[in-house]
Each structure stands twice: as C-alpha cells, then as structure tokens.
Amino acid sequence: METELCKEPLDPIVKMVGEMVIKNKSDWIGTASELAALLPKEISPNALTRRLNVNAERLLEEFNIYYETNRNRTGRQIKLTLIKK
Question: Helix 12-24 vs helix 56-63: angle between axes, to the nearest 10 degrees?
C-alpha cells in the first residue's frame, strides 16, 4: 500500500468535458470556443485546449473519450470520440 503511486486528481475542466460527452452519448466536433461555451465554468479557448492536450490520456482512461485536434482552412477543430465498450 505504501509503495503505490498516488494518482493526481483529474482536472475539473477535463472532468466537465468528459461528463458532457458521456451525457450526450455521442461524439463532439467543433472549435475550442464552441466547446468552452458549452461548459458551466468560464474558461478561455486557449486554456481549454492546453488542458485537453495535457490530459488527453486521462480523458481516454477515465471516460473512454479519444481527443484529437486538426487544422483546416477555417481553423483548428477539436474532435472528441466516445469509444463504445
């Protein structure tokens, strides 16, 4: 027990994103600004993207949500894919 590694608590913003996708039971695609507007806590799009980038693995481990970003001619998009069990 004493030698077990302590897991760092999940970022509350990442938890909100995970819960939102699971609640809707569907994938989500859009900009960071659109995603930030859906969250109950105010956060800038840049800060949201940074937090998701850092916590992408935890989002997958804890919520079964695959996070990816891509850039097209209209801007950068976030894609959150709910992986079915």
Answer: 50
- CATH number for the domain including 52? 1.10.10
Q: Which domain holds residue 23?
A: 12-82
Count of structural domains, the chain? 1
Instruction: Report if pTM > 0.70.
Output: yes
Residue-averaged pLDDT of the chain: 91
Give φ, ψ of 65 to 5 degrees. Answer: -120, 120
Show contacts of 53-59: CB within 8 Å, 24+ apart.
Answer: 54/11, 55/10, 55/11, 55/14, 58/10, 58/11, 58/14, 59/14, 59/17, 59/18
Please count the other Cβ atoms lying within 10 Å of the Cβ belonging to residue 77.
16
Could you tell me the two tokens for 24?
Answer: 């809707």
Please give the pLDDT value at position 8: 83
52 pLDDT tier (thresholds 50, 70, 90): very high
